[in-house]
Design goal:
This protein has 254 residues and is an alpha/beta fold. Helices cover 42% and strands 12% of the residues. The protein folds into 2 domains: 167 residues, 3-Layer(aba) Sandwich (Rossmann fold); 77 residues, Putative phosphatase, domain 2 (DNA polymerase, domain 1, Orthogonal Bundle), CATH 1.10.150. It binds xylulose-1,5-bisphosphate (XBP) and magnesium ion (MG).
Length: 254
């Protein structure tokens, strides 16, 4: 089946948002609430095993802070903290400090020129996706994506495949006509669970994750003057990801 659509993860894939974006915003929300919780770069790498900000806070308390007793309305308390975190995160993005990863803009432009359909499938909160796309692609950035599947729209977050199933259903597309882009072990478990051929670009937090089953594992999408490194799979001699390479790996994965 021909390649018709590209489905993108956001955090770690479109932009390196975790260490200097989400992590910082969590810490700002904790400080604003008068809490002594501080997520270091290393600790945050461990916490990333749980996707979803509210779920991650809960996991931190369960696994690392037996000393903390939450108020009786614990869910509401965590929801409030997380809302503050979203405010700090989107404000931070408006400061324009987090760029798209290499090759992302070029590939999106080329995919649009060639009539490929685009979608987002992420565990992060919808406001965060909109803020990132507007601040990097411009005001109309979100409209480049036919479906933005995000956050609590499905009850089970990645590594469950639900968010990809949701996006595919909205697009009315079989997974065999699509390619997914991910950066993490939880991400690829989700995309493979939805039967999607998957291209991985790793980042500092995810380099050592298990990417078995990936169509190709790279350090980045690359640019003509900034070639990618192949970590697993066969790029057929290509040095940066373009739509031609996507069509080849999609066909090879069929
Ligand atoms: C992203 C996440 C999210 C963000 C925080 O994972 O795990 O939890 O870190 O977002 P993926 P929220 O890239 O696999 O989608 O705080 O808005 O949940
Ligand atoms: Mg990710």
């Amino acid at each position: 089946m021909p390649l018709e659509a590209l489905l993108f993860d956001v955090d770690g894939t479109l932009a390196d948002t975790e260490r200097d974006g989400h992590r910082v915003a969590f810490n700002q929300a904790f400080a604003e609430a008068g809490l002594d919780w501080e997520w270091s770069v290393d600790l945050y790498g461990e916490l990333l095993s749980v996707t979803g900000g509210k779920e991650r806070i809960r996991h931190y308390l369960d696994a690392y802070r037996p000393d903390v007793t939450l108020p009786a309305n614990a869910d509401e308390f965590i929801r409030g903290l997380h809302q503050a975190k979203t405010r700090f995160y989107t404000e931070g993005l408006a400061g324009g400090t987090i760029p798209l990863r290499p090759g992302v803009r070029r590939l999106l432009d080329e995919a649009r020129d060639q009539g490929l359909r685009l979608a987002i499938a992420t565990t992060t909160t919808p406001e965060n996706v909109t803020a990132l796309l507007e601040n990097t692609l411009g005001q109309d950035g979100p409209s480049w994506f036919e479906v933005i599947a995000a956050g609590d729209v499905v009850p089970a977050k990645k590594p469950a495949p639900d968010i990809y199933f949701y996006a595919l259903e909205k697009m009315g597309l079989a997974p065999q006509r699509c390619l997914a882009f991910e950066d993490s072990g939880n991400g690829i478990r989700s995309s493979l669970g939805a039967n999607l051929a998957t291209l991985i670009t790793v980042n500092g937090y995810t380099r050592d994750h298990d990417f078995s089953g990936a169509a190709l594992v790279l350090d980045q999408l690359g640019e003509p003057d900034q070639p990618f490194a192949v970590l697993a799979g066969d790029s057929g001699g290509a040095r940066y990801v373009d739509v031609g390479l996507l069509r080849r790996i999609h066909e090879a994965a069929a």
